[in-house]
Amino acid sequence: MVRAHNGQTYFPGIVGLNNIKANDYCNVILQLLSHTVPLRNYFLREENYAGIERPPGDQLILLPRRFGELIRKLWNPRNFKSHVSPHEFLQAVVLCSKKRFQFTCQSDAAAFMSWLLNALHQSLNGGSSSILARTFRGRMRVITARIPPANATPAQWAQLQQLPEWQNQREESKFFYLTCDLPPAPLYVDEMKENIIPQVAMATLLAKFNGVQEKEYKEPQGESRMKRFQLLRLPPYMILYMKRFIKNIFTLEKNPTIVNFPFRNVDFGDLLGPEERRRHRFTTYDLVANVSHNGPPEGGTYRVHIQHRGTGKWFEMQDLHVVEMLPQMIPLSESLIQLWAVNRDVANPDYAPPQTTAAPPTTTEGQQAASVQPEVEASDNQQFRLISEAELTSLAAQEITKTVVANDADPLEMLLSETTMNNDPSVDSMALEPEQKPGAHEANGLPSPLPTEEPVVAASTGPVDANCD
């Protein structure tokens, strides 16, 4: 804990953000991303993105610069006061999103998060080496099956299954976050003539991605199909979005279902197949941040629960208000977005190291040959090497001399101790795809699959997105 110039004490990173008018939906996402360790460490050092070139006249060049400035303000142990204004960053958001997201009218936090992740990735020139792809990008298999006609006999259905267009289709898709479908809320009171608050377990929501559970989805052409989802790769940081807002013909409804979940040691490896599970060294995750929504769907307020990793304490932040809280109170809120970080202290018991065959070493007389093969997790597009002690000492010295938060306080040691996340061998590189058209995926509760071309800055349509020109 450090002391600001005005005498108030605070933890670096646990500081409030000004609500200029109606930008609380932006503040909670900024707080969530600022506690993502690889992303934070990347933007703390301006030289990581200062040399990135964009086409002439491209306004996206402003986004990483303003975001980096805000991250450095949030984690500065020598602030003048214990809160920060995101005004400069929000101006860049209004400009780059073409006034889709403004700080003068309320909007949807999930839609803003989707747009910001895509826009930041593109502003950093995308590619497999993007910090966004290495941190949040996962991969899944989507199995699509056509529904048989209602008047088809078993013999006719067997013949249809022989045709290529009626066979199951398998495709791999990449995602930034997983959309969990909440069960519908009850329409009537219970047998005791009292209103009840529906509840659901986190494991029930995640069963959607185990490759077994099927669900019917309506295609844009009007035809319904059954789909299954099987996770193939778990990212270091997993984002879960609870689809709480449902827009019908008449109005926007909010599902009040409470999600019950633990805070630590949630095994996402159960969603992987046997082969994929053996390729992951770590499959256990801990909760880092939880965004909740209070009030009616058209308005309401957002707040975020953040864990301070240095002390293990939980804090509730709503704009400028920062208070310590008990973690047992978090599941009682209407969770909307959650951030989970992989726990590297709990190893996957089913992990099988890749078997490599090396040629026998050649030795000369009087010398003893020795070979050291570092154990790394399988990666798609990257190769990793061991870092010597001299290189590690040099990197630490550069962090101390160049980072803007360099000081003698304990929070700096906490930052430097986590900088190795960016070079973690269990993180492989994947490209970013642009967002699909509204209604194709997000409207059905699917993660946004993105093609292999360079992304186009577009965000998924959110359930509460006001149009304020």
Task: Describe it.
With 469 residues, this protein is an alpha+beta fold. The chain has helices at residues 24-34, 37-44, 62-74, 87-96, 109-123, 131-136, 154-160, 202-206, 274-279, 389-402, 410-417; strands at 2-3, 9-10, 16-17, 83-84, 138-146, 169-175, 178-181, 199-201, 215-218, 224-233, 237-243, 245-247, 252-254, 258-260, 266-267, 284-294, 301-307, 314-318, 321-325, 335-342. The protein has 11 helices and 20 strands. The model is unreliable at 362-390 and 399-469 (pLDDT under 50).
Chart the SSEs and their pairings:
Blueprint: E1 2-3, E2 9-10, E3 16-17, H1 24-34, H2 37-44, H3 62-74, E4 83-84, H4 87-96, H5 109-123, H6 131-136, E5 138-146, H7 154-160, E6 169-175, E7 178-181, E8 199-201, H8 202-206, E9 215-218, E10 224-233, E11 237-243, E12 245-247, E13 252-254, E14 258-260, E15 266-267, H9 274-279, E16 284-294, E17 301-307, E18 314-318, E19 321-325, E20 335-342, H10 389-402, H11 410-417
Parallel strand pairs: 3-4, 7-11, 8-14
Antiparallel strand pairs: 1-2, 5-6, 5-10, 9-10, 11-20, 12-13, 15-16, 16-17, 16-20, 17-18, 18-19
Helix pairs in contact: 1-5, 3-4
